[in-house]
Every structure is written in structure tokens, then in C-alpha cells.
Amino acid sequence: MSDTERALKEVDANLESSVAELLELISIPSVSGEEEGRPGIARAAAWLDDALADVGFSSRVVETACNPVVLARSDGPAESGKRLLFYGHFDVQPVAPREAWTHEPFAPEIVEDDGVRRFYGRGASDSKSQLWSFIEALRAWKAANGAFPAEIVIMLEGEEEMGSPSLGDFLEQHREELDCDVAFICDSDMWSPTRPSITTQLKGLVHETVTINAPNADLHSGHYGAVAANPIRILSTILSSLHDEKGRVAIDGFYDGVVEMTESQRKRWRELSDELDGSGEVNLAGGVIEDGYTAIEAMWGRPAADFNGITGGNQGPGGRSVLPGSATVRLTFRLVAGQTPETIRNRFRKFVSDRVPEGCSVEFDGPEGNAAVHLSETNPFLIAAARGLEAEWGQPAVLKGTGGSIPVVGALNDGLGLDCVVLGFILESDAIHAPDEHYDVERFHRGTRSWIRILGEVRGGLRPWKQGSDEEPGRERNIGN
Amino acid sequence: MSDTERALKEVDANLESSVAELLELISIPSVSGEEEGRPGIARAAAWLDDALADVGFSSRVVETACNPVVLARSDGPAESGKRLLFYGHFDVQPVAPREAWTHEPFAPEIVEDDGVRRFYGRGASDSKSQLWSFIEALRAWKAANGAFPAEIVIMLEGEEEMGSPSLGDFLEQHREELDCDVAFICDSDMWSPTRPSITTQLKGLVHETVTINAPNADLHSGHYGAVAANPIRILSTILSSLHDEKGRVAIDGFYDGVVEMTESQRKRWRELSDELDGSGEVNLAGGVIEDGYTAIEAMWGRPAADFNGITGGNQGPGGRSVLPGSATVRLTFRLVAGQTPETIRNRFRKFVSDRVPEGCSVEFDGPEGNAAVHLSETNPFLIAAARGLEAEWGQPAVLKGTGGSIPVVGALNDGLGLDCVVLGFILESDAIHAPDEHYDVERFHRGTRSWIRILGEVRGGLRPWKQGSDEEPGRERNIGN
Prior knowledge:
By secondary structure, chain A is α+β, with helices and mostly antiparallel strands. Chain A folds into two domains: 3-202 and 372-460, 3-Layer(aba) Sandwich (Aminopeptidase); 204-276 and 294-365, Alpha-Beta Plaits. Chain A is 33% helix and 20% strand. Chain A is built from 13 helices and 18 strands. Chain A has helices spanning 3-13, 15-26, 38-55, 124-145, 167-173, 221-224, 231-240, 263-272, 295-301, 341-353, 380-393, 407-415, 441-460; strands spanning 58-62, 69-73, 83-89, 110-113, 116-120, 151-157, 182-186, 197-202, 204-213, 219-220, 304-313, 322-323, 326-335, 361-365, 373-374, 398-402, 420-423, 438-440. In chain A, strands 1, 2, 3, 6, 7, 8, 15, 16 and 17 form a nine-stranded mixed beta sheet that branches. In chain A, a hairpin with a 2-residue loop joins strand 4 and strand 5. In chain A, helix 5 runs parallel beside helix 12. Chain A is globular. The interface between A and B is large, with 101 and 103 residues.
């Protein structure tokens, strides 16, 4: 029996116990971006610190200007001579709207439905099951084989969902400790419930909150509605002009410098599927896709502006006749290579400011943004990961883009110069960032087994793509769903 | 000493005690339109029922399909042979946004600032001080003179702020009991802090709540923002098209049948003031006024569409990257004579439905609306009220319009055929319908004294306007502020 086989056996044998621990982790309300979430962040960090120590790591909780990082490493160099960084995040999105949940957000239990054993909770998929999959894989490998397969560094972030405000400082201060041959970043999704993927192209992200203020506080709308400034009306007018009739963002200079997709990339992405994410669960009716691009091209390869939230005046219930003093929109820009967050932010702010009527005012707020990242598809660790995934799932991994943004990838890749491999096992249908977020036991199990196989590939020796074979990405091959 | 003088003296002597009782009434959270407000509504009704019995009325609480009405009457006909109906409402607007209040909404106490004794609380001005002013005046008249000056009927409504859903049925069922020579409706404002007014023209009102639903529940905006339907974007586009470049409502047929202001009316309103409400406290910068009309004409004489609230997706804090599954706007239409609520509602719903993209859906909701009301300016009770107000305040009462809507006026005037006189003592600067709503002791005192003088005019005998004199409205006279 090979090391890999022994470790897989250990994973299988320990599944129920490992899931029980995962549910305990999910039950900790580690919401970032809300003051009330701070105690949960601290509890989750302490819980993970203990768990990593139990597995045999030297672990500690590192405080930052914002939320803490759990940082662990194995003792001394390993026989393989390789040093691997694993990244995950233990903070979760806010729960709101609470009333839309039919399950408790922080009291997960296993629910069997149509033969699938699911568990519900904020963070169930994004991203506590993800980080727990590599921790359990490393535990199992050591338990089965007596030692880790490589020197291991684990970094668990506590502020990913709020835009990682102190990540840059943290990385700078721990540059040496984090210097590894590769960073495995486990925070992305599968192509479909049966087909794995590695994400090689990620969008940049700029969050903006815009508040339009009228010169008066709230007024009676019956008395002044017909004459005084209405921030909802002003905001609607501005938002409706942010896209042109071709579905393009109408901000001056928004597309300046944008790196176009390559023909090879477009060809591969068009071959993937007629469906959007391989699962076909998302209905695009009523959506506006930029003229000249397919849905996948727009999602992965074109910059976008999305409205995430709007609020102002009477939130109901009841019909309060108020002319609100202010209205607020929250939006995000998703960037591609060639766009810089600060330029986009400044151009957007000018776009809005130019459209605010005299006498009214506008406030802007937003954390530091991050640029898009394109990763090498010939990095031998990526190839090892692709082989490990294919061995577990029986289908080749899709090398895909994403419309999402993972700030740590750019920070590790561009900032620390680490090769990154971005993979994960969640699905949009897990309701990530939404009410009733969930995950399932089988996917957790196979995700953990995938890590064992990837560790086995790394332990066994790295090899490039077989040139000219079906294995090499970009060549003609059947990667239909 | 005349009856009027004796009653004024009694009002003056009892001021502090009367205000203390008023604060007790304001402390009862009688919010209509919210399920949680129901106990407060019941408590306020019982409190008023007791208070009216103490004054010597036969009073009872009449249940309806929605909120109760307190109905009281004096025993038997009075010497004057006249029968007067007094109307007020004891329900209040919701408190939200609670965090914007710097005073407790339901724990009023007197706060002295710059020599003005104010009290803060939801309902302080709209409308508990108003109804308490005529109750205290009637109490004082009886205490000073041994009997009421006329036969009195008092009707206190508990659902005005939610659009009076059961008012029509209540009036129909109590038609005989409510049959009076005049209805004094105390729920309107002064022209300025020093100048009284009577409102003779009120707008109609249609409340609508519109929700745009995407075909999916909330999605991750990074993944699907560039391709799937965004209800905030759809809603913004629709709202921004509701007004045209002339500031007119762009709904087909919206202005059909609209009764234009008379030249005499426009002339009188233009003479009133360059300021908007006589107090000059509202800043119109950034507002859009329909082309061809002054601010006061737009407020009192032109129909309007106002956005009262909007909500969808991430409400913050924190930057949740959500593509929301729905977005909602609450809006009101203010109607003038010639427009019917149902026609406007139907035309608006068609306007929106025509603009919802295929694959998305729209839901509409809204209580029954009411039409605009124009009252006679030669009704002798109105003339008596104008004389009483002028005697108290030392300035002639402005006969004004309002952009606001008081459903009971139409119901009593058009439905029961009662002559109505609409007056009151609140000001927009009292923050009605807004956080930190307040009122002041002096205005309550002078409002109560105004009612004594009006009762004195009614008791003394009704007389028409002195034809051709300064007193007659519409003639040249100095009614500048």
C-alpha cells in the first residue's frame, strides 16, 4: 500500500469524526465586517489554533490591526525538501437577511435529503469546509505515514470577507516565514458537482459605498415631494446611467488598458459548456451581457460594475410618507488585467460627483481595492494538483477563470512572488454569501481525498505537462461537461 | 368677563397639568402599520376613552376591522342649537430609523432650549398635541362656563398613518351619530410659527410598493454580476424614467382630467411668500420642480410622484458581494382634483410592468387610495375659525393648499356630506414623520386658546365674510409673511 493509499484509508475511516469537528467550527459566528462579529472571530481563531496544535503543528494566533491570522508550521524540513503553504480563511459573510434563512446560520447539523447528507450554516461552504479539508488531509497523512509529506506552513485569514484590510502588512511582516515553493489557496469552486477545476485567472475588486445627501434631513413627502431634492431619485438616475445600451460601463476611461482575452482562451472557454457554471442552476433571464461576448467571457474576462445593495428612506413595513434625507448604494467593480483599482475608483467618483445636483452632496467610502491576477498554467505544482484532482474525480480539472476576487492570491503572487495554485470544492448552488448556505458530507470527503492525492503527487516528484498529449491545456481535447 | 375670556383663563391656569397629561399620551407607542404597534394602539384608545369620560363626555371605544376609533359625545342638544364634530388621530408613524433619534421616541419630557420649552417623541406634533388641544379647550370651556358651547361629537381615529383602511366602513355605520353642522379636523399645519392657516385644498394619495424579483435568489456578485439580472439595476432604470426632462411624471395619461389651478388661486399663492412654508427652513436646492410652476403651485396644485423608500441586497455594514434576488421601492402619488386613485395606480402598474425584462417578475402592493378634496371658502364655520385664529395670533389665517393628504376630509366631505374646516398648529420643522419629532409648550398653549376663540365665535353667532372688505379672501390685501 502506498503512502497515498494509507492516507486515503485514514481519511475514510475518520470521516464522521472530522465532519463533527467541522460542524463545531461552523457553529462559531466568525462574521467579519460587523462589530458584533469580533468575539466570534477570536473564538474561531483560538479553536483553529488548538486544532492545528493537536495535529502536530507549531501554531499561534497573530494579531493584526484588524482581525487575527492563525499561523502554523510543521517542525523542521521534510524529506521531500519541499515547503508548501496552505491558505484558507475562517471569517464568514454577514447573515443578513436573517429572516430568509430556513436553517439556523450557526447551529449546523447533518440533514439527509434525497440521499445527500447536507449541513447548513454561514461559512459551511465559504470557507470553513475548504480549510478543514486540507487540515484533515494533512492530519490523516501524518497519522497514516508518521510524518508530513513536505514542510508545511498554514495561514488562516480572519478578514477575507471584508476585503483583507491588514493582509498586506501581515504578509510583509511574515515574508520569510511564508516563503514557500508554492501556495495552495483553497477558496475557489468546482466547475460542476462532478468535475474539479483550478482557477488561473481572477478578477480585481473595488468596493464602493456611495451616499447621496439632500440639503435637508427627512421631510414629509406630501409637503415637499414635488419640490425638494429626493436622494432616491438622484441615485436612481445616476445608477441607470452607469451602463450604456451595449451593456458596457459608461464611465469615461473605464476600459483604458484592458487586456483582451487571447483567442486560445476564448476558444477553450467557449468549448467548456453552453451552461454557465457546469451546473446550469443559474438562470440568466433578464440579465444584460456586454455586446460581443459570451456569458463565460463576460464573467471571467471582462470588467464589470455590479450593484450589491441599495437603501434609503422608508424600509417598511407600513407606508411612511417620507422624503428621505439620504440614499445609499453599495457596488463593486470587478477588474481585469490592465486596470488599476485606484484609477477605476477615481474615475467612478468623478462620474458620480459630476451628476450630483448643486445643493446636494455625496460621500464615498471603500476599502483598498486589488488588481486582477493571471497565474501560470505551467507551474509544476499546478500540474501536480491537476493530476491529483483528476485521479480523485475521474475527470480532468478545468483550468478556468472566475468573476470572483481573492485578494490573497494577488498579494502572495505579485507581493511575495509565490507561485499560487487556486482550487476548491464549493459550488454556486451551495448558496455562498446567501441565506441557507450549505455543503455536503460527500463533497467534503472527496475534497479531503483530493488533497491526499495532490500531496501524493508532490511527494512523488513533480513533472511538466506531457507535451503534445491530451493532458496539456489548450490543445484539442474533449473537456465538455 | 365673557364666556370666552373665562375659558381662556381656565386654559392658562391649567397649562402645566394639561401638558403633563399630553406627555403621558405621547409616551404610549401607538404605532399603526406595524404588528408590534397593536398593544400601543389599544392602550392609547383606552387612555383617551377615560380622559374624555373625565371631561364629561359619553365615550366608548369602537372596534373596526383594523384599529379602534374613540367616539364621544356630549349629553343632549346645547343651547346654541349647533352640533360640532371634532376629529383627530391618535396613531403615529413608525419610529424607524431608530438610530437617528437623539431623544427617546416614547419617553417625552420638557427640554428647555433658547427659552423654548420643547418635548420630543413620535406623535408629539402629529397628531397627539393637536387632538389634545381641542379636548383641553372643550374641558376648559365647560369647567369655566358650566356647559359645552354646542353639542359636541369627538371622533379619534387609530389608523390615519396607515391610510385609514376601515374608515369608510366606520363612517357608514355611524353616519347618523356623526351628522353634524361642521367637522373641525385638527391635523394640519400653520403657515409659519407666527401665522395660522386653514387648509382648503388637499391632495389625494396613492401608496405603492413595488418589488422586482430576479429569476434567482441572491447570488455571488463576483460570479454572476456581469451576466445575471440585477433587480437594483432594473429598478433604478425604471425609477429614473418615471419623470421626464420637464419634471413631469412620464406615465401615459397621468395628467388626464387634471383640474388646473384658477388664476385667482395662483395669484393668491404667489403673493404668499417667496419662501416655501413661511418658515424658510426647507432648502429646495437639488429639487426638480415641474416646468412652468412655482414651488407652492407644485406643492399644492400639481400632482406628483415621490419615492419614499428603497431597499435591496446588502444593507451594510460590511461589503457583502451579493447580487440580490430582489429590490423594492415604496412610492406615493399625490393627486389633484380630476385624478382617480385607481386609474393612477393601474397606469403606474402598467408603466412598470412594461419595463420589467422577460424572466424577471414584479409584485405590487398598496392600500386603497383617496382622491383630492377642495373645500368651500365661504362656509360660515370656516369664517368663524378664521376669525378665532386671527384673534389669537394677531395675523389673518392663510387659506392654503397642502401637498399632504388627510383621507378623513374626503370621507367626511364627499362621503357624509359634512362641511369641513381643516386647521392645526404643527410645522414642518417639528420633524413630523421624521426622527426627533417634537412640539413646544407655547404652541400647544396657543393652539388650545385658538380653539377657545373659535368656540366663542361659533357660540356668538356665525357671520359671512364682510363682502368687499379686507377680510374676504381673494381680495387685494397684505398677507405677506
